[in-house]
Amino acid sequence: QVQLVESGGGLVQAGDSLRLSCAASGRTFSSYPMGWFRQAPGKEREFVAGFSWITTTNYADSVKGRFTISKDNAKKTMYLQMNSLKREDTAVYYCAAGGVGPNAKVYDYWGQGTQVTVSS
Is 104 helix (H, G, I), strand (E, B) or coil? Predict the structure, then answer.
């Protein structure tokens, strides 16, 4: 069993930065596949970034060059550094574990989500 807790969301201006954190517990963290998703009002949950292997990362085209995923194995925490935020980045951001790739259905565990709102 894996427990995931996100934090770091908030209200920012377009162009600002935020760093989201996902604290994990309950299982070996270092090699466990994890990723970030987001869901805007009225839209389906979409893939943002993830680890396809221990250190190999992949990103949605909409965030490439602006967002960076990383993790600290000692702290059992995954991060999402978001720079140059745009209004269209506004969504609830979820941490997920146990799956690889952009299909949300293959992930076994989810956090409760953290709201990111970008104003212009």
Answer: helix
